Amino acid sequence: MTQSVCPYCRSAHEVSAIAGINTSEAPALKEKVRDGSLFIASCPSCGKTYLLDYPFLYHDPDLKVMIWLQGSGNEGADALKALGAAASSLDGYILRTVSSPGALIEKINIFETGLDDRAMELCKWVCSQEMEKEVQGIRFVRLEGADNEIVFSFALEGRMMSAKAGFNVYEDCRAILARREAGEGEDGFVSVDQGWVLENFR
Q1: DSSP E strands: which ranges in 78-133?
Q2: Which of 39, 111, 149, 179 allows an S-S link to 101, with CB 3.0 to 4.6 Å?
């Protein structure tokens, strides 16, 4: 249990907060991460639901992936540094940090689909540049159909929308990464998002 403050009525109360999961040991909790319900709390004072904000470690030993959900504060920074130092020695592991439950769910979808999240972030940036209007929060959702079309979701003028891109766009981005070797050689947990794309490709 941990203390939480409702963002609506500002009342403090205790909530159940799980520090992390190993997916091979907790498949039921894995599904709660994937549907986002693990990060939802209900305020006993006003009855409204809201997103919890705390550090969380997602560990999938089968895919060799660790993803650290940072939360908005500096809580857990020391633990992340120590964990990163230890995890860097794990052969073949992918270590990532994300800033929101939605970004965590997207990373899980990307890795479980067998895709490279670096190439997908570049693919998202390319697709967003080709759209006529400025989009916000573009996210990978799934591959669809025999041709593996990429389905994205994004916010546009306050509404949630979806768009598709050919898988060849992703393949082109993989080829660019192979030539540029972007992000290679970094130790510890790395944030691979649209900021990472701008840092490495602009």
Answers
A1: 94-98
A2: 39
Kindly state the DSSP code that residue 157 receives in the 8-state scheme: T
CB 56 within 8 A of CB 15: no
- The better pLDDT of the pair 200, 49 is held by 49
Q: Is residue 140 helix, strand or coil?
A: strand
pTM: 0.88
Q: How many whole angstroms separate alpha carbon 193 and alpha carbon 162?
A: 19
CB burial string 186-198: b at 16+ within 10 A, e below: eeebbebbeebbe
Across 34-61, b (16+ Cβ under 10 Å) vs e yields beeebbebebeeeeeebebbbbbbbbbe
- When pLDDT is averaged across residues 100-127 and rounded to a whole number, the result is 95
Lowest mean pLDDT among 17-26, 49-58, 86-95, 176-185: 176-185
- Give the chain's largest Cα–Cα span: 55
The residue extents of the domains of the chain are 1-112, 116-202
Single-letter residue type at 175: A
